[in-house]
Every structure is written in C-alpha cells, then in structure tokens.
Amino acid sequence: MPASRVSLVTLLALAGMTGMAALAWTGGQDRGPSRRPWLVGHRGASAYAPENTVPAFRLAADQGADFVEFDLQLTKDRQIVCLHDNSLERTTDVEQVFPDRFRKTGDGAQAAPRWMLEDFTLAEIKRLDAGSWFDPKFRGTRIPTFGETIDALRGRSGLFIELKTPERYEGIERLILAELDAKGLARPGADARTPVLLQSFTAASLQILHSLGTKLPVHFLVGARDAAPWITDEGLQKIKAFATGLSPEKTIVADRPEVVARIKAAGLAITPYTFRASAVPSGFADVRAEMSHFLTRVGVDGVITDNPDLMPR
C-alpha cells in the first residue's frame, strides 16, 4: 500500500470515520471489501420535512445519512441558495409576498405565471416562507444559502452538491468552489467529518469544474431519456474524462443491471436516484426492500433517497 494511502487510512481511523469518507474522496475508485455503501438524503429527509431546507438537512443527518444532497442556484444578486425548481411558487409563498413579480411562460391559454429565482435578490428571498407548503409546523422556514447549509451540516454529514441547471448561471462553478474554499472544504479530505461531492446533469458544467482544477469527486447525473449514449463503453470513457462517478436514474439500472459492472470497470462510482417510500415499483414490498436489492443484488455503491431512516443497514 502506498505511503499516501496509509496516511489516509490512519487519518480516517483517528477521526473515527467509516470507509464511506475514503470512498467519497476517491469517487469510488480503489474500492475495498470493508467499505460499506453510502446513504444520501435527497434534498434532505424530504419525505418528512420541506425539501432543501435546514430542517430537512438536519433530519437527514439525524436519520443516519452519510451525505445530504441539495440543489444550488443563484439569486439576482448572484448569491448561492438551495432550491430545486428554477421558480419559487411551488415551495414558497412568493405569490402572496410578491404578487406582481411573475413572468408569463408558455403560449396563449397555456401561459402560466412563474416567479423565477433569478428575478429576486437574496434579501427578497429571505422574506419567503419555504416551509408552510409542506406542513404548517414548518411555518417560517427560509430558503438557506449555501454557507448556511454547510454550517448546518458540518461535522454531521457529507455534502452531495448538485449544480442545478448551471447553464442559467454563468460562473456558478467558480462561486461554489470559492465558497467551499472559504469554508476550508475545497480539498478532498479537508474535513473528515464533512466529505464533499459535486454533481450535475450538465456535462459542460462538470467539465468547467474539471478545468478549474478541483480534486473533489464529481458525479454525472443521467436521466433515463438521455442515458443511451452515456452508458456505452465509449460514453463511460467520455464521462471518466471529467467525472469520477455516475448518478443514474434508478430505472436505467433496473432495466439493465449489467450496466453496473461496466460502470465499475470504467473506474466510476454509481449512486442511483431516487428511492421513495411513496413510489415503490411493483415487485418490492417497500422502499427498504427496493434499496436492499440495488445495494446487495445489483451492487451499486450507494442510494439517493427521500427516506434516509429506511435505509437497510
């Protein structure tokens, strides 16, 4: 074993960490038999608390998530915040707070008002209630900034960061890396208690991260409709040029389980999404059984789930 690897193992032992952190740092390469799969809380524990908010993040950590996944976008004044949709109306009370600040999207009778994130400053965003839509007990919950998210999770869980539609926000890659650097998390292993991974559906954005010199593990998100050219041997080699892992829609793996061996042979980690107790495919008793099948029978490296408390251990 190289001296550098010995040092890493020693550091993890001293920190009291499991093998999960080492695997996260390497992006799944050099996987050893003692390393267990990792559990990723999707937008936090989003089955039980409003997605992409601090209550959901903290609950996911409390439920044992090795990583918490969240989505990052930019406000009008280029502040990084956690939000999945490009617009605010689904998960906030923006229609009541700013009733006239919408755009019309679509044509004719199908045109719909949308309150786009990029039209609002951070100060305006912070006026919005991002919890009541989910349950009145979360009234007053706010959309968190990236920095607030890091502070809420540091030492409790890893960060599974998705750059959401980064093509809308020029320079977001550099801003995210700068924030990680300011928090002392821009290098693999910088904080053994808070491993960091970056992912996106946009290959060009991951290529930008690569060109910026990040050594953090990077995963390419792939949906079922777009998977065909990427899960060939040639496609996987293209991914390997800018990423260390693949986060495929779980139906890709369910329909073609043999692709897992090909992905691993290419030296890529694989973490399918999204496992939900509210949407279990036929053939499984519950989401725990579904996740167990993917982890033990199919052999994926981890799962992304709305229900971290139901992860088979």
How are the SSEs placed, and which strands pair?
Blueprint: H1 3-15, H2 20-26, E1 38-42, H3 54-62, E2 67-74, E3 80-82, H4 94-97, E4 103-105, E5 112-114, H5 122-125, H6 146-153, E6 158-163, H7 172-182, E7 196-200, H8 203-211, E8 218-222, H9 233-240, E9 245-248, H10 250-255, H11 259-265, E10 269-270, H12 287-298, E11 302-305
Helix pairs in contact: 3-6
Please give a structural write-up:
- By secondary structure, this protein is of the alpha/beta class.
- It has a single domain, classed as TIM Barrel (Alpha-Beta Barrel).
- 31% of the residues lie in helices and 15% in strands.
- It has twelve helices and eleven strands.
- Strands 1, 2, 3, 6, 7, 8, 9, 10 and 11 form a nine-stranded mixed sheet that branches.
- Helix 3 packs parallel to helix 6.
- It is globular, with a radius of gyration of 19 Å.
- The N terminus is likely disordered.
Report the count of strand segments: 11
In round numbers, the mean pLDDT is: 90
CATH fold-level assignment: TIM Barrel
How do the helices and strands follow one another from N- to C-terminus? HHEHEEHEEHHEHEHEHEHHEHE
Strand content: 15-25%
What composes the largest sheet?
9 strands, mixed
Low-confidence stretches: 1-35
* Level-1 CATH class name: Alpha Beta
